[in-house]
Specification:
By secondary structure, the protein is α/β, with parallel strands linked by helices. The chain is 54% helix and 8% strand. It is built from 21 helices and seven strands. The strands form two sheets. The protein has a five-stranded parallel β-sheet with strand order 2-5-6-1-7, sandwiched between helices. The chain has a two-stranded antiparallel sheet with strand order 3-4. The radius of gyration is 29 Å and the shape is elongated.
């Protein structure tokens, strides 16, 4: 997620101590540990580190930067990382050469000596054992002392092997800055440990402690990112103006989900929040034109929708628990806990506990992406407290014109009016 220079500058001011330490780390002699920069998805950690690396002085050789930076998003083998580093160090080389180098680089870096030569006729690359055994690691990836690896949580290599690879780099004299959403890595490793049979896996803390010597958390403030998220979710026109005007409410919704799992472990997922806003924009576009412009209805519906949708998308709330009810009106449901955690203010109560703009069952179908017809949506919207009275008045008006009604319509309207008395 791209964020403005203004937000990046604020990140740098708020995290000046991290900038200071990164500079000190780079100036250190031989080190045996990496620095990890953690943060939620979309928190600005990548842009924060990039602002630091962009400021680094170049080495004496103007053709080579003082650092190499690569993303591990989707990378599935250690050889692929070798290729990425080689490409970053020598961007002028073509893809075929990079693939060949990737196959031999890992062996060279670990000191393996080849017993025979080989030739790749397609690209004309020739190498022999005598040539390879003396090639240093730096000759392949350049003499950049600092390597930056981003998106560790999106890497397909298991974290144990990946940390072993980083350890080898440290032993080769490199300094490492690792950028990741560490909570996602922990979650994945825990799932792997639960599915593993036949051996007991070490904890993530045990694995990472062998490589990571210093951790820093970088987190942009939701108040700063809110406008960016609304724009990137393509919430424009009436909805965009409404969301900007109700910033305080939706910031509270965001914080409610973040605080749901306890004050000691706040969970923020900016990308999931953006996706929830995008889902809201989708359903807003399908609502009746007149009703969706009603500010009161829009507030009731949108805060409930975003609260539950974001909680599910971020993994804070299980789908099965989203609309759980114990049958006890005084019992606190997961929905209530979310609401109370962030101090979200609700204007009214309905039969199910909160005024959420539409019937609970309809909201549930919308959250779970189930089919909803145009008529079902209109009927559900019209049941909102903001339109119910107008609907009743309309039924009375229709009865006054009884001579225009068919027998079936007359009976249906009469029963509705009597029920509402």
């Amino acid at each position: 997620m791209k964020i403005s220079k203004k937000i990046i500058e604020k990140l740098k001011r708020n995290n000046a101590h991290i900038m200071d330490y990164l500079g000190a780390y780079r100036r250190m002699g031989n080190v045996d540990f990496a620095v990890m920069i953690t943060g939620s998805w979309g928190s600005g950690k990548t842009e924060f580190v990039k602002s630091w690396t962009d400021s680094l002085a170049r080495s004496d050789n103007d053709e080579k930067p003082d650092y190499l930076s690569v993303s591990l998003n989707g990378v599935s083998s250690l050889n692929d990382i070798d290729s990425l580093l080689f490409r970053a160090a020598h961007p002028v080389l073509g893809g075929k050469s990079v693939r060949i180098v990737g196959k031999v680089l890992g062996a060279i870096a670990s000191g393996v000596k080849f017993s025979a030569g080989g030739t790749d006729a397609k690209v004309g690359l020739e190498f022999s054992a005598s040539e390879l055994k003396d090639v240093s690691f730096d000759k392949w990836i350049g003499d950049a002392p600092l390597l930056v690896f981003d998106d560790l949580e999106r890497c397909c290599i298991d974290i144990e092997s990946l940390m072993g690879y980083f350890d080898d780099l440290l032993k080769n004299g490199k300094k490492l800055v690792l950028i990741c959403a560490e909570e996602e890595i922990k979650k994945r490793w825990k799932e792997n440990a639960q599915n593993e049979t036949g051996r007991t896996l070490p904890s993530y803390a045990e694995i990472s402690s062998k490589v990571v010597g210093k951790r820093f958390a970088v987190e942009a403030e939701i108040e700063d990112l809110y406008g960016v998220l609304v724009a990137q979710a393509e919430c424009s026109g009436t909805l965009g103006a409404f969301l900007r005007d109700q910033k305080r409410v939706f910031v509270n919704v965001f914080k409610a989900v973040g605080a749901h799992e306890g004050a000691n472990r706040r969970i923020h997922n900016y990308r999931a929040f953006k996706h929830a806003l995008r889902d809201l924009a989708y359903w807003f576009g399908k609502m009746p034109n007149n009703e969706r412009k009603h500010a009161g209805f829009l507030l009731d519906f949108s805060r409930a929708f975003v609260l539950i949708d974001y909680a599910i998308l971020s993994g804070t709330l299980k789908i099965d628990d989203a609309f759980e009810s114990s049958g006890d009106p005084d019992a606190e449901t997961p929905f209530d806990k979310l609401m109370n955690a962030g101090g979200v203010v609700w204007n009214a109560w309905d039969a199910s506990g909160r005024d959420i703009g539409v019937p609970v069952e309809l909201l549930k179908r919308m959250i779970f992406n189930e089919p909803v017809t145009k008529d079902e949506l209109k009927q559900g919207v019209c049941q909102s407290r903001h339109f119910a009275e107008a609907l009743k008045f309309n039924e009375w008006q229709q009865l006054l014109n009884w001579n225009r009604l068919e027998d079936g319509q007359m009976k249906l309207l009469t029963n509705k009016v009597l029920d509402n008395l």
